[in-house]
From TrEMBL:
Record-given protein name: Hsp90 protein
Keyword ATP-binding: yes
Region Disordered: start-end pairs: 378-426
InterPro entries cross-referenced by the UniProt entry: HATPase_C_sf, HSP90_C, Hsp90_fam, Hsp90_N, Ribosomal_Su5_D2-typ_SF
Family: Belongs to the heat shock protein 90 family.
Basic and acidic residues bias (residue ranges): 389-405
Organism for this UniProt entry: Oribacterium sinus F0268
Keywords: ATP-binding, Chaperone, Nucleotide-binding
Pfam families in alphabetical order: HATPase_c_3, HSP90
UniProt key word Nucleotide-binding: yes
Length: 636
Protein backbone atom coordinates (compact mmCIF):
# COMPACT_ATOMS: atom_id res chain seq x y z
CA UNK A 1 0.00 0.00 0.00
CA UNK A 2 1.16 3.52 -0.83
CA UNK A 3 2.57 5.20 2.32
CA UNK A 4 3.65 8.59 1.02
CA UNK A 5 2.06 11.85 -0.07
CA UNK A 6 4.12 14.24 -2.17
CA UNK A 7 3.31 17.94 -2.60
CA UNK A 8 5.00 19.56 -5.62
CA UNK A 9 5.05 23.11 -6.94
CA UNK A 10 6.89 24.93 -9.71
CA UNK A 11 7.39 28.10 -7.68
CA UNK A 12 10.52 30.04 -6.75
CA UNK A 13 11.99 27.29 -4.58
CA UNK A 14 14.46 27.90 -1.72
CA UNK A 15 18.21 28.17 -1.24
CA UNK A 16 20.02 26.37 1.57
CA UNK A 17 19.98 29.57 3.65
CA UNK A 18 16.23 29.98 3.10
CA UNK A 19 15.55 26.37 4.09
CA UNK A 20 17.57 26.94 7.26
CA UNK A 21 15.68 30.16 8.04
CA UNK A 22 12.11 29.33 7.05
CA UNK A 23 11.96 25.61 7.73
CA UNK A 24 14.50 24.71 10.38
CA UNK A 25 14.52 27.78 12.60
CA UNK A 26 10.83 28.73 12.44
CA UNK A 27 9.51 25.20 12.48
CA UNK A 28 11.58 24.14 15.48
CA UNK A 29 12.28 27.23 17.55
CA UNK A 30 8.86 28.69 16.73
CA UNK A 31 7.13 25.48 17.71
CA UNK A 32 9.14 25.17 20.90
CA UNK A 33 8.30 28.73 21.90
CA UNK A 34 4.67 28.14 21.05
CA UNK A 35 4.40 24.92 23.08
CA UNK A 36 6.07 26.55 26.06
CA UNK A 37 3.81 29.59 25.85
CA UNK A 38 0.53 27.69 25.51
CA UNK A 39 1.27 24.43 27.33
CA UNK A 40 -1.35 25.26 29.98
CA UNK A 41 -3.99 26.44 27.50
CA UNK A 42 -5.52 23.54 25.62
CA UNK A 43 -7.35 25.65 23.06
CA UNK A 44 -6.78 24.64 19.45
CA UNK A 45 -8.04 28.05 18.22
CA UNK A 46 -4.79 29.63 19.47
CA UNK A 47 -2.72 27.70 16.91
CA UNK A 48 -4.28 29.61 14.03
CA UNK A 49 -2.06 32.21 12.42
CA UNK A 50 1.32 31.14 13.85
CA UNK A 51 3.65 30.95 10.85
CA UNK A 52 5.84 27.84 10.74
CA UNK A 53 3.49 25.69 12.76
CA UNK A 54 1.63 24.67 9.61
CA UNK A 55 4.73 22.87 8.43
CA UNK A 56 5.43 21.42 11.86
CA UNK A 57 1.92 19.89 11.90
CA UNK A 58 3.05 17.50 9.12
CA UNK A 59 4.44 15.30 11.89
CA UNK A 60 0.90 14.72 13.16
CA UNK A 61 0.48 12.26 10.26
CA UNK A 62 4.06 11.48 9.18
CA UNK A 63 7.04 9.72 10.79
CA UNK A 64 9.42 11.35 8.34
CA UNK A 65 9.29 14.47 6.17
CA UNK A 66 11.58 15.19 3.20
CA UNK A 67 12.03 18.38 1.18
CA UNK A 68 13.61 18.66 -2.27
CA UNK A 69 13.93 22.26 -3.46
CA UNK A 70 15.75 24.36 -6.05
CA UNK A 71 15.70 28.15 -6.01
CA UNK A 72 15.00 30.16 -9.16
CA UNK A 73 18.10 32.25 -8.38
CA UNK A 74 21.09 32.01 -10.71
CA UNK A 75 23.65 29.33 -9.81
CA UNK A 76 21.46 28.07 -6.95
CA UNK A 77 22.06 24.49 -5.88
CA UNK A 78 19.32 21.98 -5.03
CA UNK A 79 18.76 21.23 -1.35
CA UNK A 80 17.56 18.05 0.34
CA UNK A 81 16.15 18.36 3.88
CA UNK A 82 15.02 15.36 5.94
CA UNK A 83 13.63 15.03 9.45
CA UNK A 84 12.42 12.07 11.52
CA UNK A 85 9.77 12.48 14.24
CA UNK A 86 10.05 16.27 14.19
CA UNK A 87 13.23 16.35 16.29
CA UNK A 88 16.49 15.64 14.37
CA UNK A 89 17.04 16.80 10.81
CA UNK A 90 19.71 16.62 8.11
CA UNK A 91 20.37 18.91 5.14
CA UNK A 92 22.41 17.84 2.09
CA UNK A 93 22.72 18.71 -1.58
CA UNK A 94 19.65 17.63 -3.46
CA UNK A 95 18.94 16.24 -6.91
CA UNK A 96 16.12 18.49 -8.16
CA UNK A 97 16.78 19.91 -11.65
CA UNK A 98 13.89 22.44 -12.03
CA UNK A 99 12.96 25.28 -9.71
CA UNK A 100 10.24 24.66 -7.16
CA UNK A 101 9.72 22.54 -4.05
CA UNK A 102 8.66 18.96 -3.30
CA UNK A 103 7.58 17.91 0.20
CA UNK A 104 7.15 14.18 0.84
CA UNK A 105 5.31 12.87 3.90
CA UNK A 106 6.05 9.29 4.98
CA UNK A 107 2.77 8.49 6.71
CA UNK A 108 2.61 6.70 10.03
CA UNK A 109 0.46 3.59 10.29
CA UNK A 110 -2.46 5.44 11.89
CA UNK A 111 -2.79 7.87 8.99
CA UNK A 112 -2.48 5.67 5.90
CA UNK A 113 -6.02 6.61 4.86
CA UNK A 114 -4.66 9.95 3.63
CA UNK A 115 -2.75 8.13 0.89
CA UNK A 116 -6.07 7.03 -0.61
CA UNK A 117 -6.84 8.92 -3.81
CA UNK A 118 -10.48 9.62 -2.94
CA UNK A 119 -9.73 10.65 0.64
CA UNK A 120 -7.14 13.13 -0.62
CA UNK A 121 -9.50 14.36 -3.33
CA UNK A 122 -12.29 15.04 -0.82
CA UNK A 123 -9.95 17.02 1.47
CA UNK A 124 -8.63 19.16 -1.38
CA UNK A 125 -12.11 19.76 -2.79
CA UNK A 126 -13.39 20.82 0.64
CA UNK A 127 -10.64 23.26 1.60
CA UNK A 128 -9.01 24.25 -1.69
CA UNK A 129 -11.78 24.11 -4.31
CA UNK A 130 -11.20 27.78 -5.16
CA UNK A 131 -7.56 28.27 -4.24
CA UNK A 132 -5.96 30.82 -6.63
CA UNK A 133 -3.24 28.33 -7.66
CA UNK A 134 -4.07 25.27 -9.76
CA UNK A 135 -3.97 22.00 -7.81
CA UNK A 136 -3.57 18.69 -9.65
CA UNK A 137 -3.91 15.21 -8.17
CA UNK A 138 -1.79 12.38 -9.55
CA UNK A 139 -1.82 8.77 -8.40
CA UNK A 140 1.28 6.57 -8.50
CA UNK A 141 1.82 4.22 -10.20
CA UNK A 142 0.07 6.08 -12.98
CA UNK A 143 -2.92 4.64 -14.80
CA UNK A 144 -3.35 5.07 -18.55
CA UNK A 145 -5.95 6.81 -20.67
CA UNK A 146 -6.76 6.99 -24.37
CA UNK A 147 -6.93 10.22 -26.35
CA UNK A 148 -7.23 11.21 -30.01
CA UNK A 149 -3.84 11.79 -31.59
CA UNK A 150 -4.88 15.37 -32.32
CA UNK A 151 -5.44 15.98 -28.58
CA UNK A 152 -1.85 15.21 -27.58
CA UNK A 153 -0.10 17.76 -25.38
CA UNK A 154 3.69 18.29 -25.35
CA UNK A 155 3.98 16.93 -21.79
CA UNK A 156 2.01 13.73 -22.49
CA UNK A 157 4.00 10.48 -22.19
CA UNK A 158 2.88 8.12 -24.98
CA UNK A 159 2.68 4.45 -23.98
CA UNK A 160 1.14 3.07 -27.18
CA UNK A 161 0.03 4.31 -30.60
CA UNK A 162 -3.28 3.00 -31.89
CA UNK A 163 -3.38 3.36 -35.71
CA UNK A 164 -6.30 4.39 -37.86
CA UNK A 165 -8.77 1.67 -38.83
CA UNK A 166 -11.89 1.20 -40.90
CA UNK A 167 -15.22 0.89 -39.10
CA UNK A 168 -18.81 0.75 -40.32
CA UNK A 169 -21.16 3.50 -39.21
CA UNK A 170 -24.89 3.12 -38.49
CA UNK A 171 -25.69 3.16 -42.21
CA UNK A 172 -23.20 0.39 -42.88
CA UNK A 173 -20.75 2.65 -44.66
CA UNK A 174 -17.04 2.23 -43.95
CA UNK A 175 -15.26 5.18 -42.39
CA UNK A 176 -11.70 5.64 -41.25
CA UNK A 177 -11.28 6.38 -37.53
CA UNK A 178 -8.72 8.87 -36.26
CA UNK A 179 -5.51 7.50 -34.81
CA UNK A 180 -5.50 7.28 -31.00
CA UNK A 181 -2.82 7.31 -28.33
CA UNK A 182 -2.59 5.52 -25.01
CA UNK A 183 -0.83 7.87 -22.60
CA UNK A 184 -0.02 8.07 -18.92
CA UNK A 185 -3.12 9.41 -17.17
CA UNK A 186 -2.93 13.15 -16.90
CA UNK A 187 -3.06 14.79 -13.46
CA UNK A 188 -6.61 15.83 -12.54
CA UNK A 189 -7.31 19.52 -11.90
CA UNK A 190 -9.29 19.75 -8.64
CA UNK A 191 -9.92 23.44 -8.16
CA UNK A 192 -11.32 26.52 -9.86
CA UNK A 193 -8.86 29.40 -9.59
CA UNK A 194 -11.37 32.04 -10.71
CA UNK A 195 -14.51 31.47 -8.58
CA UNK A 196 -17.74 33.05 -9.70
CA UNK A 197 -17.98 35.36 -6.71
CA UNK A 198 -14.88 37.21 -7.91
CA UNK A 199 -16.51 38.15 -11.22
CA UNK A 200 -18.41 41.37 -11.82
CA UNK A 201 -22.15 40.67 -11.30
CA UNK A 202 -22.97 42.39 -14.60
CA UNK A 203 -20.91 39.83 -16.54
CA UNK A 204 -22.37 36.67 -14.97
CA UNK A 205 -25.26 34.85 -16.65
CA UNK A 206 -28.15 33.09 -14.94
CA UNK A 207 -26.86 29.71 -16.09
CA UNK A 208 -23.45 30.43 -14.56
CA UNK A 209 -25.05 31.24 -11.21
CA UNK A 210 -27.13 28.05 -11.35
CA UNK A 211 -24.17 25.90 -12.40
CA UNK A 212 -22.05 27.28 -9.55
CA UNK A 213 -24.89 26.56 -7.10
CA UNK A 214 -25.27 22.96 -8.27
CA UNK A 215 -21.54 22.23 -8.14
CA UNK A 216 -20.90 23.92 -4.80
CA UNK A 217 -23.90 22.67 -2.84
CA UNK A 218 -24.78 19.50 -4.76
CA UNK A 219 -28.37 20.70 -4.86
CA UNK A 220 -30.14 20.33 -8.19
CA UNK A 221 -33.32 22.14 -7.15
CA UNK A 222 -33.15 25.60 -8.67
CA UNK A 223 -32.84 28.42 -6.11
CA UNK A 224 -35.41 31.21 -6.19
CA UNK A 225 -32.88 34.04 -6.64
CA UNK A 226 -29.49 35.17 -5.36
CA UNK A 227 -27.49 38.16 -4.12
CA UNK A 228 -23.99 38.86 -5.46
CA UNK A 229 -21.92 40.67 -2.81
CA UNK A 230 -19.03 42.79 -4.07
CA UNK A 231 -17.34 45.31 -1.79
CA UNK A 232 -13.79 46.73 -1.95
CA UNK A 233 -13.96 49.59 0.57
CA UNK A 234 -13.49 50.03 3.52
CA UNK A 235 -12.83 46.28 3.54
CA UNK A 236 -12.83 43.51 0.96
CA UNK A 237 -15.78 41.15 0.83
CA UNK A 238 -17.20 39.15 -2.04
CA UNK A 239 -19.69 36.34 -2.19
CA UNK A 240 -22.97 34.95 -3.45
CA UNK A 241 -26.01 34.17 -1.29
CA UNK A 242 -28.69 31.88 -2.74
CA UNK A 243 -32.30 31.72 -1.57
CA UNK A 244 -33.43 28.10 -1.83
CA UNK A 245 -37.05 27.08 -1.48
CA UNK A 246 -37.61 27.02 2.28
CA UNK A 247 -40.30 24.85 3.85
CA UNK A 248 -42.39 26.08 6.76
CA UNK A 249 -40.66 23.81 9.27
CA UNK A 250 -37.82 26.31 9.59
CA UNK A 251 -36.11 24.36 12.40
CA UNK A 252 -35.34 21.50 9.99
CA UNK A 253 -33.79 23.69 7.31
CA UNK A 254 -30.12 22.95 6.70
CA UNK A 255 -28.57 25.94 5.03
CA UNK A 256 -24.86 26.32 4.40
CA UNK A 257 -22.82 29.51 4.30
CA UNK A 258 -19.20 28.72 3.41
CA UNK A 259 -16.64 31.21 4.67
CA UNK A 260 -13.39 31.72 2.71
CA UNK A 261 -10.25 33.78 3.23
CA UNK A 262 -8.46 34.57 -0.05
CA UNK A 263 -10.32 31.67 -1.70
CA UNK A 264 -9.21 29.19 1.00
CA UNK A 265 -12.05 27.52 2.87
CA UNK A 266 -12.20 28.34 6.59
CA UNK A 267 -15.44 26.81 7.90
CA UNK A 268 -19.18 26.43 7.39
CA UNK A 269 -21.72 28.53 9.24
CA UNK A 270 -19.56 30.64 11.56
CA UNK A 271 -22.27 32.39 13.58
CA UNK A 272 -19.82 34.94 14.95
CA UNK A 273 -19.30 36.32 11.42
CA UNK A 274 -22.54 35.53 9.61
CA UNK A 275 -25.92 36.63 11.05
CA UNK A 276 -27.66 33.56 12.45
CA UNK A 277 -30.80 33.89 10.36
CA UNK A 278 -28.70 33.84 7.16
CA UNK A 279 -27.69 30.27 7.98
CA UNK A 280 -31.03 29.23 6.48
CA UNK A 281 -29.60 30.20 3.09
CA UNK A 282 -26.85 28.70 0.96
CA UNK A 283 -23.89 30.72 -0.15
CA UNK A 284 -20.20 31.57 -0.10
CA UNK A 285 -18.52 34.61 1.45
CA UNK A 286 -14.85 35.47 0.89
CA UNK A 287 -13.33 38.07 3.21
CA UNK A 288 -9.51 38.39 3.01
CA UNK A 289 -9.51 40.95 5.86
CA UNK A 290 -11.11 38.57 8.36
CA UNK A 291 -8.83 38.01 11.41
CA UNK A 292 -7.93 34.31 11.68
CA UNK A 293 -5.59 34.31 14.67
CA UNK A 294 -8.29 34.94 17.27
CA UNK A 295 -10.75 32.66 19.05
CA UNK A 296 -14.45 32.56 18.21
CA UNK A 297 -15.32 34.36 21.44
CA UNK A 298 -13.04 37.21 20.37
CA UNK A 299 -14.61 37.24 16.90
CA UNK A 300 -18.00 37.75 18.50
CA UNK A 301 -16.85 41.01 20.09
CA UNK A 302 -14.64 42.18 17.22
CA UNK A 303 -15.79 45.53 15.79
CA UNK A 304 -14.56 44.69 12.30
CA UNK A 305 -16.48 41.42 12.27
CA UNK A 306 -19.60 43.30 13.40
CA UNK A 307 -19.23 45.63 10.39
CA UNK A 308 -19.05 42.62 8.07
CA UNK A 309 -22.20 41.17 9.62
CA UNK A 310 -24.02 44.52 9.33
CA UNK A 311 -23.00 44.89 5.68
CA UNK A 312 -24.34 41.44 4.81
CA UNK A 313 -27.60 42.21 6.61
CA UNK A 314 -27.89 45.51 4.73
CA UNK A 315 -27.35 43.92 1.31
CA UNK A 316 -29.84 41.12 1.96
CA UNK A 317 -32.49 43.60 3.13
CA UNK A 318 -31.82 45.86 0.13
CA UNK A 319 -32.25 42.94 -2.27
CA UNK A 320 -35.54 41.82 -0.70
CA UNK A 321 -37.04 45.29 -0.29
CA UNK A 322 -35.93 46.24 -3.80
CA UNK A 323 -37.59 43.13 -5.19
CA UNK A 324 -40.81 44.04 -3.39
CA UNK A 325 -40.74 47.62 -4.73
CA UNK A 326 -39.68 46.95 -8.32
CA UNK A 327 -40.91 43.41 -9.00
CA UNK A 328 -43.91 42.92 -6.71
CA UNK A 329 -45.33 40.09 -8.83
CA UNK A 330 -42.26 37.90 -8.40
CA UNK A 331 -41.86 38.91 -4.76
CA UNK A 332 -45.39 37.65 -4.11
CA UNK A 333 -44.62 34.47 -6.04
CA UNK A 334 -41.55 33.83 -3.87
CA UNK A 335 -43.17 34.86 -0.60
CA UNK A 336 -44.45 31.49 0.61
CA UNK A 337 -40.95 30.04 0.18
CA UNK A 338 -38.94 32.90 1.66
CA UNK A 339 -41.31 34.07 4.40
CA UNK A 340 -39.91 31.70 7.10
CA UNK A 341 -36.45 33.13 6.44
CA UNK A 342 -37.63 36.76 6.56
CA UNK A 343 -39.72 36.21 9.68
CA UNK A 344 -36.88 34.43 11.43
CA UNK A 345 -34.54 37.26 10.47
CA UNK A 346 -36.95 39.84 11.88
CA UNK A 347 -37.10 37.92 15.16
CA UNK A 348 -33.32 37.54 15.41
CA UNK A 349 -31.89 40.77 14.00
CA UNK A 350 -33.06 44.27 14.96
CA UNK A 351 -31.43 45.99 11.98
CA UNK A 352 -32.89 43.50 9.51
CA UNK A 353 -36.30 43.91 11.16
CA UNK A 354 -36.15 47.69 10.81
CA UNK A 355 -35.27 47.47 7.10
CA UNK A 356 -37.89 44.80 6.30
CA UNK A 357 -40.85 45.97 8.44
CA UNK A 358 -42.72 47.46 5.46
CA UNK A 359 -42.06 44.51 3.13
CA UNK A 360 -43.68 41.69 5.07
CA UNK A 361 -46.56 40.20 3.10
CA UNK A 362 -49.85 38.81 4.37
CA UNK A 363 -52.14 36.71 2.17
CA UNK A 364 -55.82 37.50 2.69
CA UNK A 365 -58.84 35.25 2.22
CA UNK A 366 -59.00 36.19 -1.46
CA UNK A 367 -55.37 35.08 -1.93
CA UNK A 368 -54.21 38.67 -2.39
CA UNK A 369 -50.97 39.81 -0.78
CA UNK A 370 -50.78 42.92 1.40
CA UNK A 371 -47.83 44.59 3.11
CA UNK A 372 -48.19 45.55 6.76
CA UNK A 373 -48.84 49.24 5.92
CA UNK A 374 -51.47 48.16 3.37
CA UNK A 375 -53.04 45.84 5.92
CA UNK A 376 -53.17 48.56 8.57
CA UNK A 377 -54.96 50.86 6.11
CA UNK A 378 -57.87 48.42 5.90
CA UNK A 379 -60.69 50.12 7.79
CA UNK A 380 -62.62 46.92 8.38
CA UNK A 381 -60.20 45.62 10.99
CA UNK A 382 -60.06 48.83 13.03
CA UNK A 383 -62.12 49.00 16.19
CA UNK A 384 -62.23 50.68 19.57
CA UNK A 385 -61.59 48.48 22.61
CA UNK A 386 -60.75 48.99 26.26
CA UNK A 387 -57.94 47.63 28.38
CA UNK A 388 -59.22 46.84 31.89
CA UNK A 389 -56.71 47.66 34.60
CA UNK A 390 -59.02 47.05 37.57
CA UNK A 391 -60.10 43.86 39.33
CA UNK A 392 -63.48 43.47 37.64
CA UNK A 393 -64.10 40.51 35.37
CA UNK A 394 -63.48 40.89 31.65
CA UNK A 395 -67.09 39.93 30.97
CA UNK A 396 -68.41 42.75 33.13
CA UNK A 397 -65.93 45.12 31.52
CA UNK A 398 -67.07 44.19 28.03
CA UNK A 399 -70.74 44.59 29.01
CA UNK A 400 -70.09 48.07 30.40
CA UNK A 401 -68.15 48.99 27.31
CA UNK A 402 -71.03 47.93 25.08
CA UNK A 403 -73.43 50.05 27.08
CA UNK A 404 -71.21 53.14 27.15
CA UNK A 405 -69.42 53.06 23.81
CA UNK A 406 -71.86 55.35 22.01
CA UNK A 407 -71.70 58.04 24.71
CA UNK A 408 -67.96 58.00 25.40
CA UNK A 409 -66.48 57.81 21.93
CA UNK A 410 -64.90 61.08 20.85
CA UNK A 411 -64.44 62.38 17.31
CA UNK A 412 -61.05 60.74 16.83
CA UNK A 413 -62.54 57.30 17.32
CA UNK A 414 -60.87 56.58 20.66
CA UNK A 415 -62.77 55.89 23.85
CA UNK A 416 -62.32 58.41 26.65
CA UNK A 417 -60.89 57.25 29.96
CA UNK A 418 -63.43 56.84 32.77
CA UNK A 419 -63.28 59.18 35.74
CA UNK A 420 -62.34 56.48 38.27
CA UNK A 421 -59.19 55.62 36.31
CA UNK A 422 -59.94 51.88 36.39
CA UNK A 423 -59.99 51.51 32.61
CA UNK A 424 -57.59 52.75 30.02
CA UNK A 425 -59.13 53.02 26.58
CA UNK A 426 -57.29 52.81 23.28
CA UNK A 427 -57.99 52.39 19.60
CA UNK A 428 -56.85 48.99 18.39
CA UNK A 429 -56.23 47.79 14.85
CA UNK A 430 -57.41 44.18 15.09
CA UNK A 431 -56.22 41.73 12.44
CA UNK A 432 -57.95 38.36 12.27
CA UNK A 433 -55.88 35.47 11.01
CA UNK A 434 -56.20 31.82 10.01
CA UNK A 435 -53.70 29.35 11.48
CA UNK A 436 -55.24 26.16 10.06
CA UNK A 437 -57.32 26.54 6.90
CA UNK A 438 -58.92 23.10 7.22
CA UNK A 439 -59.82 23.22 10.90
CA UNK A 440 -61.06 26.82 10.63
CA UNK A 441 -62.88 26.43 7.30
CA UNK A 442 -66.29 27.23 8.83
CA UNK A 443 -65.01 30.53 10.20
CA UNK A 444 -63.38 31.35 6.85
CA UNK A 445 -66.69 30.75 5.07
CA UNK A 446 -68.55 33.09 7.41
CA UNK A 447 -65.89 35.80 7.11
CA UNK A 448 -66.05 35.58 3.32
CA UNK A 449 -69.85 35.72 3.27
CA UNK A 450 -69.82 38.97 5.23
CA UNK A 451 -66.75 40.42 3.51
CA UNK A 452 -64.73 40.48 6.70
CA UNK A 453 -60.95 40.71 6.47
CA UNK A 454 -58.57 37.99 7.67
CA UNK A 455 -55.12 36.78 6.66
CA UNK A 456 -53.36 33.42 6.57
CA UNK A 457 -50.61 32.86 9.15
CA UNK A 458 -50.09 29.12 9.02
CA UNK A 459 -46.37 28.66 9.61
CA UNK A 460 -44.95 27.39 12.85
CA UNK A 461 -42.93 30.57 13.35
CA UNK A 462 -46.01 32.81 13.10
CA UNK A 463 -46.98 32.58 16.77
CA UNK A 464 -43.73 34.24 17.84
CA UNK A 465 -43.74 36.50 14.78
CA UNK A 466 -47.10 38.16 15.44
CA UNK A 467 -46.14 38.73 19.07
CA UNK A 468 -43.06 40.59 17.82
CA UNK A 469 -45.16 42.67 15.41
CA UNK A 470 -47.58 43.62 18.18
CA UNK A 471 -44.69 44.73 20.39
CA UNK A 472 -43.28 46.92 17.60
CA UNK A 473 -46.59 48.38 16.34
CA UNK A 474 -48.62 50.22 18.96
CA UNK A 475 -52.33 49.44 18.76
CA UNK A 476 -51.88 46.44 16.44
CA UNK A 477 -53.50 43.21 17.69
CA UNK A 478 -53.64 39.85 15.93
CA UNK A 479 -56.54 37.59 16.79
CA UNK A 480 -57.10 34.07 15.53
CA UNK A 481 -60.25 33.77 13.49
CA UNK A 482 -61.88 31.35 15.95
CA UNK A 483 -60.87 33.31 19.07
CA UNK A 484 -63.64 35.48 20.56
CA UNK A 485 -65.32 34.92 17.18
CA UNK A 486 -68.58 36.62 18.14
CA UNK A 487 -66.82 40.00 18.47
CA UNK A 488 -66.41 40.20 14.70
CA UNK A 489 -69.76 38.68 13.73
CA UNK A 490 -72.38 40.00 16.14
CA UNK A 491 -75.04 42.51 15.19
CA UNK A 492 -75.21 45.87 16.94
CA UNK A 493 -77.89 45.70 19.63
CA UNK A 494 -79.72 48.17 21.80
CA UNK A 495 -79.13 48.16 25.53
CA UNK A 496 -82.47 46.43 26.09
CA UNK A 497 -81.64 43.71 23.54
CA UNK A 498 -78.28 43.13 25.19
CA UNK A 499 -79.88 42.67 28.60
CA UNK A 500 -82.41 40.23 27.16
CA UNK A 501 -79.70 38.11 25.48
CA UNK A 502 -77.68 38.13 28.70
CA UNK A 503 -80.66 36.81 30.65
CA UNK A 504 -81.35 34.05 28.11
CA UNK A 505 -77.63 33.15 28.05
CA UNK A 506 -77.70 32.54 31.80
CA UNK A 507 -80.67 30.17 31.49
CA UNK A 508 -79.08 28.21 28.64
CA UNK A 509 -75.75 28.09 30.48
CA UNK A 510 -77.31 26.36 33.48
CA UNK A 511 -79.04 23.85 31.22
CA UNK A 512 -75.94 23.03 29.14
CA UNK A 513 -73.73 22.77 32.23
CA UNK A 514 -76.15 20.28 33.79
CA UNK A 515 -76.85 18.18 30.68
CA UNK A 516 -73.20 18.04 29.58
CA UNK A 517 -71.82 17.69 33.14
CA UNK A 518 -69.50 20.64 32.47
CA UNK A 519 -69.90 23.14 35.28
CA UNK A 520 -67.17 25.43 33.83
CA UNK A 521 -68.74 25.74 30.36
CA UNK A 522 -69.58 29.30 29.36
CA UNK A 523 -72.58 29.93 27.10
CA UNK A 524 -72.87 33.13 25.05
CA UNK A 525 -76.09 33.76 23.19
CA UNK A 526 -75.34 36.17 20.35
CA UNK A 527 -77.26 37.61 17.43
CA UNK A 528 -74.76 36.91 14.66
CA UNK A 529 -74.75 38.46 11.20
CA UNK A 530 -75.41 35.06 9.61
CA UNK A 531 -78.22 32.55 10.26
CA UNK A 532 -75.66 29.74 10.34
CA UNK A 533 -74.08 27.94 12.05
CA UNK A 534 -76.15 27.10 15.11
CA UNK A 535 -73.15 27.08 17.42
CA UNK A 536 -69.41 27.66 17.43
CA UNK A 537 -66.73 27.27 20.05
CA UNK A 538 -65.06 30.56 20.84
CA UNK A 539 -61.65 30.48 22.49
CA UNK A 540 -60.25 33.36 24.49
CA UNK A 541 -57.31 34.80 22.52
CA UNK A 542 -55.39 35.48 25.73
CA UNK A 543 -55.98 31.95 27.02
CA UNK A 544 -55.05 30.42 23.66
CA UNK A 545 -51.76 32.32 23.49
CA UNK A 546 -50.89 31.37 27.05
CA UNK A 547 -51.42 27.70 26.20
CA UNK A 548 -49.19 28.06 23.11
CA UNK A 549 -46.48 29.56 25.29
CA UNK A 550 -46.76 26.66 27.74
CA UNK A 551 -46.38 24.19 24.87
CA UNK A 552 -43.24 25.97 23.66
CA UNK A 553 -41.79 25.80 27.17
CA UNK A 554 -42.55 22.08 27.25
CA UNK A 555 -40.82 21.55 23.88
CA UNK A 556 -37.73 23.33 25.18
CA UNK A 557 -37.62 21.04 28.23
CA UNK A 558 -39.30 23.42 30.69
CA UNK A 559 -42.57 21.72 31.74
CA UNK A 560 -45.02 24.34 33.01
CA UNK A 561 -48.11 22.20 33.55
CA UNK A 562 -51.38 22.21 31.62
CA UNK A 563 -53.35 25.41 31.20
CA UNK A 564 -57.00 24.75 30.27
CA UNK A 565 -58.39 26.80 27.40
CA UNK A 566 -61.16 29.24 28.25
CA UNK A 567 -63.76 28.00 25.78
CA UNK A 568 -67.21 29.46 25.31
CA UNK A 569 -70.05 27.93 23.35
CA UNK A 570 -71.49 30.71 21.19
CA UNK A 571 -75.12 30.03 20.27
CA UNK A 572 -76.54 31.87 17.27
CA UNK A 573 -79.92 33.35 18.23
CA UNK A 574 -80.89 33.52 14.53
CA UNK A 575 -80.52 29.79 13.92
CA UNK A 576 -83.81 27.82 13.94
CA UNK A 577 -82.35 25.15 16.23
CA UNK A 578 -81.34 27.68 18.89
CA UNK A 579 -84.63 29.52 18.43
CA UNK A 580 -86.43 26.23 19.10
CA UNK A 581 -84.52 25.74 22.35
CA UNK A 582 -85.37 29.26 23.48
CA UNK A 583 -89.09 28.79 22.76
CA UNK A 584 -89.32 25.38 24.46
CA UNK A 585 -87.70 25.83 27.86
CA UNK A 586 -89.50 22.78 29.25
CA UNK A 587 -87.71 20.61 26.67
CA UNK A 588 -84.36 21.40 28.30
CA UNK A 589 -85.34 19.33 31.35
CA UNK A 590 -86.07 16.19 29.27
CA UNK A 591 -83.90 13.43 27.83
CA UNK A 592 -84.59 14.79 24.34
CA UNK A 593 -83.34 18.21 25.39
CA UNK A 594 -80.18 16.68 26.84
CA UNK A 595 -79.64 14.79 23.57
CA UNK A 596 -80.10 17.97 21.56
CA UNK A 597 -77.68 20.03 23.66
CA UNK A 598 -75.02 17.31 23.52
CA UNK A 599 -75.34 17.20 19.75
CA UNK A 600 -75.10 20.98 19.38
CA UNK A 601 -71.99 21.03 21.56
CA UNK A 602 -70.25 18.25 19.60
CA UNK A 603 -71.15 19.85 16.26
CA UNK A 604 -69.45 23.02 17.45
CA UNK A 605 -66.39 21.07 18.62
CA UNK A 606 -66.02 19.20 15.33
CA UNK A 607 -65.65 22.52 13.54
CA UNK A 608 -62.51 23.20 15.59
CA UNK A 609 -60.90 19.80 16.04
CA UNK A 610 -61.59 16.11 15.70
CA UNK A 611 -63.23 14.15 18.52
CA UNK A 612 -61.32 11.37 20.22
CA UNK A 613 -62.33 7.72 19.89
CA UNK A 614 -64.93 7.51 22.67
CA UNK A 615 -66.30 10.98 21.90
CA UNK A 616 -66.72 10.09 18.25
CA UNK A 617 -68.55 6.88 19.15
CA UNK A 618 -70.97 8.81 21.36
CA UNK A 619 -71.49 11.38 18.61
CA UNK A 620 -72.27 8.70 15.99
CA UNK A 621 -74.62 6.83 18.34
CA UNK A 622 -76.42 10.05 19.22
CA UNK A 623 -76.70 11.05 15.54
CA UNK A 624 -78.28 7.69 14.70
CA UNK A 625 -80.70 8.06 17.61
CA UNK A 626 -81.79 11.51 16.43
CA UNK A 627 -82.24 10.25 12.87
CA UNK A 628 -84.34 7.31 14.08
CA UNK A 629 -86.54 9.71 16.05
CA UNK A 630 -86.99 11.77 12.89
CA UNK A 631 -87.96 8.65 10.90
CA UNK A 632 -90.41 7.48 13.57
CA UNK A 633 -92.08 10.90 13.62
CA UNK A 634 -92.41 10.78 9.82
CA UNK A 635 -94.00 7.32 10.03
CA UNK A 636 -96.49 8.56 12.56
Amino acid sequence: MQKTICFKDNGIGMTEEEVEKYITQIAFSGAADFIEKYKDKANSDQIIGHFGLGFYSAFMVADRVEIETLSYKKDAKPVHWSCDDGTDYSMTEGSKSSHGTEITLHLNNDCLKYANEWEMRSIIEKYCSFMPVEIYLEKLPKDSQEILASEKLPEDLVLEEIPEKLEKDEKGEEKKTEARLKIEKRPVLLNEIHPLWGESPSTVTKEQYLDFYRKTFHDYKEPLFWIHLNMDYPYHLKGILYFPKINSEYESIEGTIKLYNNQVFIADNIKEVIPEYLLLLKGVIDCPDLPLNVSRSQLQNDGFVKKISDYITKKVAEKLSGLCKTDRENYEKYWDDISPFIKYGILRDEKFAEKMKDYILFKDLEDKYLTLPELKEKKDGSETVSENTGDKSSEESQQKEKQASDENTNESGTVEQSGDGEKQEEKVQRVYYVSDALAQSQYIRIFKEHKKEAVYLTERIDSAFITELEAKNEGLRFQRIDADFQEAMQEKLSEEEQKNLQSLSEKLEKSFQKNLAKDKLKIKLERLLSNTPAALLSISEESRRMQEMMKMYAISGMPMGELPLEESLVLNEKHPLVDYLLKHEALLETEEGKLLEEQIYDLARIQNASLNGEEMKQFVDRSEKLLLQFVEEKKA
